[in-house]
Specification:
transmembrane helix; Immunoglobulin-like; four-stranded antiparallel sheet; transmembrane; Ig-like_fold; membrane
């Protein structure tokens, strides 16, 4: 848990770190059971996918928001971890440093060295099947209104928005948030774009809107994909467009602005067409001019030829 006491309507974050030694375990099924003083227990599936309450994907820390408060009092937590044949153990911690494929210098694209690839055999080892149960202690919740609660929890912030050009279209992808943080299903999205990073960050509402009327949000944790053709955008080599998105639930509660993704346009150089063969008129005119030059300046040309021969020898 992220804290021992909580005041409604703040959510709780439940997380479990699954390791073997000091190495993170990936691909496990992690279930958390929350038992209130009154009412039935609530089960949550904790995820390590880098969305919602989970900050970093595949670091062995499985997380989930908890918002199903039944009333004031103490809540007990228990976590069950199950591994099957596909469960793997990360052989070594991966770097979280951002890889930048290239940069622009004086209007020219400079490419960095390719990111070194690491084989699955080098970083993963199968653990087989296992089951573990651990107590997560307890936490106390206060200020929960009697007689039930209204919807006060917005969708969670989208933290993995990505964008890239695909020919003349822009492709965006992200993990769907929920109706209440990372639980349930959002109602709709608001997407904005700008050629200015600062304008998009500081004045999201005033940025150019992207038409997402055809986009229906999927349940929380699902990978979303959206593609559109950019209009009224500068199409020059090195042009960068910035994107951000917000989710809205059925109570019109809005999430925080997502991370800002960028799509850079790299136009391949145009192939130059071979020069067309000169026509007869051009050849004839060239011969005529050459004849005149030879007649008028014959001595100069003779000297030039002599010098050239001397240099070649």
């Amino acid at each position: 848990m992220n804290k021992d006491t909580n005041n409604f309507p703040n959510p709780m974050v439940i997380y479990a770190e699954v390791t073997q030694g000091f190495l993170p375990v990936l691909g496990a099924t992690v279930m958390a059971t929350v038992e209130p003083q009154t009412g039935s227990a609530v089960e949550l599936k904790l995820l390590d996918d880098g969305s919602g309450a989970d900050i970093i994907k595949n670091d062995g820390i499985y997380s989930k928001y908890f918002t199903s408060f039944k009333g004031n009092g103490r809540y007990n937590l228990k976590v069950r971890v199950q591994g099957k044949d596909k469960t793997v153990r990360l052989g070594r911690r991966q770097s979280q440093a951002l890889y930048v494929p290239g940069y622009i210098e004086n209007g020219e694209i400079k490419m960095n060295a390719a990111r070194p690839e690491v084989s699955d055999d080098e970083i993963q080892a199968k653990l087989g099947s296992f089951n573990r149960v651990a107590s997560g202690g307890s936490f106390v919740v206060e200020n929960v209104p009697s007689g039930g609660t209204t919807d006060v929890f917005p969708p969670c912030k989208i933290i993995d928005l990505e964008a890239q050009y695909e020919e003349d279209k822009i492709h965006l992808s992200w993990t769907a948030p929920g109706n209440d943080f990372d639980v349930g299903q959002a109602d709709r999205y608001i997407m904005k774009m700008s050629e200015s990073l600062l304008d998009l960050r500081n004045t999201f509402e005033n940025a150019t809107s992207v038409n997402t009327s055809s986009l229906v949000p999927n349940p929380a944790g699902t990978k979303e994909s959206f593609q559109f053709k950019s209009e009224n955008v500068t199409r020059e080599n090195g042009t960068i467009i910035y994107f951000a998105i917000r989710a809205i639930d059925n109570a019109s509660l809005t999430s925080e602005m997502s991370n800002i993704a960028q799509a850079a346009l790299f136009l391949p150089p145009k192939e130059s067409s071979p020069d067309s063969a000169p026509n007869d008129d051009v050849i004839n005119k060239g011969i005529s001019v050459l004849t005149i030059v030879l007649i008028v300046a014959g001595s100069i040309i003779a000297v030039s030829i002599a010098v050239s021969i001397t240099v070649c020898i």
